[in-house]
Amino acid sequence: MRINKIIVTFLITVFFCNKTTSQEGLPIYSDYLSDNFYLLFPSMAGVSNCTKLRFTGRKQWMDQDKSPNLQTLSINGRLGESRSALGSIIFNDENGYHSQSGAYFTYAHHILFSRSELDLNMLSFGLSAGLIQYKLDESSFLNAGFDPLISGVEQSATDFNIDFGFSYQYLDFYAHASIKNLLNNDGINFNEQGLSYNNLRTYLFSTGYLFTDNTNQWNFEPSFMFAHKDGTKETFLDANLKVYRETDFGRLWAGISYRNSFDGAEFLDSQDQIKTQKLKYITPLIGLEFEGFVFAYTYSYQSNSIVFDNGGYHQLTLGFNFGCRKTRYDCNCPWIK
User: Fold this and answer.
1) Which residues are paired to 108 by β-bridges?
2) Which value, in Å, is the radius of gyration of the alpha carbons in the chain?
3) Tens of pLDDT along 202-238?
4) pTM for the model
5) pLDDT tens readout for residues 242-257
6) Handedness of CA 130, 56, 287, 241 (dihedral sign)
């Protein structure tokens, strides 16, 4: 069958491209909770009944010019009435003198196991490929004089990247998994010994379920997202809860996310004793969908006792749904309807 050939082609591409080089791509923040699972899972392209256009802006320390900031622009939707879908993500990520920008293009295919489109029982596969340009601006590093370890120019490297993932959705239950940065990276990320960190592979898994009250107007969605970075052995877990309110004019939602890292960083306290601290983020979020327009705001606060600054990350999401098809599935699932 043609579907089987597509799946086999995906798997062959995934396992035989590991000998190529790539560059680290989109950072893993909490923007996926703002109605945009597609940012992390390419298999979610075209899952919704509508074509989704989303813009996200994220920034820390508003009064600093080179503070960490990220912008993404994404779009994804079905190819007509087929089971195939396309998507694209453009992003720009800056942190001080380091920056990366790039674009991903996605193909996804959705296989319906139920006999009709009344019940949702669907397995999806997605493959994203992208070009990422990484930059390190050293042009202002030599103000204090010559240094043989500093080039004094803007270094840059452009690499190729592949992400692969799948999703399974059954009524109000979902599970997603993806492997990001499948390819090795021989770019300009070097440590002080001149060794390159070329393994930026990240494994992601997310699952959740939607509970509905008797009025069918309130929905509660607990979910989890697990991430593991293969090269650095970093692991963290997001525990999330979102509450939806269905209204005559659209949908309102609010939620909270708690991110906890399983790895700690050592530091010396005031008594010169070695302590360990694990990264902890608390992220409240609110959102509104009104006649196809989407607005969402999140604020990420680092709850650790030892931090550089108490300022958090502000994130704004704007979106628009268009080209909507009729509602097919008998589920409340807001990530589709």
Assistant:
1) 85, 126
2) 21
3) 999 999 999 998 888 899 999 999 999 988 888 999 9
4) 0.83
5) 999 988 888 999 999 9
6) positive
Contacts of 38 (CB under 8 A, 6+ apart): 44, 45, 52, 74, 76, 87, 89, 106
Closest by CA to 76, choosing from 13, 7, 30, 126, is 126
121 forms beta bridges with 170
More confident position, 288 or 117: 288
| Residues with Cβ within 8 Å of residue 237, at least 6 apart in sequence | 224, 225, 226, 227, 259, 260, 262
Say yes or no to pLDDT of 196 above 70: no
Contact 83, 299 (CB under 8 A): no
**2-322, what's its fold?**
Porin (2.40.160)
For residues 78, 80, 86, 87, the Cα torsion angle rounded to the nearest 10 degrees is -60
- Report whether pLDDT(264) > 80: no
Separation between Cα atoms, residue 60 and residue 45, nearest integer Å: 29
Q: pLDDT tier at 184 (50, 70, 90 boundaries)?
A: confident
The greatest distance separating any two alpha carbons of the chain, rounded to the nearest whole angstrom, comes to 72
